[in-house]
């Protein structure tokens, strides 16, 4: 069974970014997350991570289209 929630450490490893960058994504709301437990640790729903990745792919495609149009 696949895990529903990922730790922030799992997220930053998946995205190959620093922990500081991971916290920044959460703080800005770019990557929705919740704090759970008495220690208030961050958890990201796996579906939210996938959604974030898809948004970043879409943003990259738009940038590439824009630069191709400017070059053409």
Automatic annotation (TrEMBL):
GO molecular function: DNA binding
Record domain Helix-turn-helix: where: 5-55
InterPro entries, sorted: HTH_17 (IPR041657)
Highest taxon above the source species: Bacteria
Keywords noted in UniProt: DNA-binding
Protein name as it appears in the record: Putative DNA-binding transcriptional regulator AlpA
Organism annotation: Promicromonospora sukumoe
Keyword DNA-binding: yes
């Amino acid at each position: 069974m696949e895990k529903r929630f990922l730790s922030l450490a799992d997220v930053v490893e998946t995205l190959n970014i620093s922990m500081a960058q991971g916290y920044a994504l959460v703080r800005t709301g770019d990557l929705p997350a919740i704090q759970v437990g008495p220690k208030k640790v961050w958890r990201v729903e796996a579906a939210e991570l996938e959604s974030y990745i898809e948004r970043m792919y879409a943003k990259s495609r738009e940038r590439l289209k824009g630069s191709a149009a400017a070059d053409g």
